[in-house]
Amino acid sequence: MSVNIWTIVMVAVFGLVAIGLYGLLIIRNLIKVVVALQIFAKGTILVMVAAGAMSGKPAVGQSLAITVLVADTVVTVMALALAIQVRRWSGTLDTREISKLRR
Amino acid sequence: MWIQILVLGSTLVCALMAIRASRLLVSALWLAGCSAFLALSIALLGAPEVGVVELSVGAGLVTILFVFAISVAGEETVGVKSVVPRPLAWILMAVFAVLLAWLALPGLVASALPRDALPFLRALWVERSLDTVLQVALIFSGVLGSLGLLADRREVGRASRKAGEGAAP
């Protein structure tokens, strides 16, 4: 198989998604969990653009990429607001400490 | 092609550093760098509109949000012990990447289909107009939800305490 531009893009997508997944598995700080989620979503945006261009419908892929970008930004806003509230009420951002709290 | 390799490699390095950085602010700045490199890569792939939106929203707005959240919540360095054991995380990540590559890479041989003539703006505003309406609704609900979450709850707490005192004998 010859190495073309889409192979390189796909390798980068695997890298971004794998780094995001590793971060989601390993991180305990609530704000850094959101950072890992952002990296995961960046891989998704890149694969949307690449898949649209590869299947001959670049405009559809790009508009879906913008949809993913907007939805991901709203998710980030809500997650950061929740993290601020958790910090305000429980005094910590550590997910293990938060999961010990009962009611 | 070499420019694309360089830009995508920089994106991956920035993403890795954003995960590895111990300070939250440094992590947010590495994420902004990752976003900027990704926007450049998307523009080089022939989608400058998405690149501009990614640069302004991903590198601009989200970074400002992170800095705001870190300044409100405070810099807290959580210890190194992770949720799952680190070797297990590495193994899961490697299995995931290999499975994804196994699924996706054979489809890459039949690339280079002819581009259709559908312009991007027509696709966004006419063909996918439902998506656009849903995006507007999502943005409004996100703004309202974050305002509700960030509002000061002391008034609510005082009111509920008064109600509790009234109920107790």
Structure description:
The complex is a heterodimer of chains A (103) and B (169). Chain A has 103 residues and is mostly helical. Chain A contains four helices and no strands. Chain A has one domain (5-100): Helix Hairpins (Orthogonal Bundle). Helices cover 83% and strands 0% of the residues of chain A. Chain A is elongated. Chain A starts with a helix and ends with a helix. With 169 residues, chain B is mainly alpha-helical. Helix content of chain B is 76%, strand content 0%. Chain B has two domains: 1-77; 119-169, no CATH class. In chain B, α1 runs antiparallel to α2 (24-44), α2 (24-44) runs antiparallel to α3 and α5 crosses α6. Chain B is built from seven helices and no strands. The mean pLDDT of chain B is 79. Classes of the chains: A mainly alpha (103), B mainly alpha (169). Chains A and B meet through α1, α2 and α3 of A and α1, α2, α3, α4 and α5 of B.
Give me the secondary-structure topology:
The complex is a heterodimer of chains A (103) and B (169).
Chain A: H1 5-26, H2 30-54, H3 58-90, H4 95-100
Chain B: H1 2-20, H2 24-44, H3 48-73, H4 86-104, H5 120-127, H6 129-150, H7 154-167
Offer a concise description of the structure.
The complex is a heterodimer of chains A (103) and B (169). With 103 residues, chain A is mainly α.
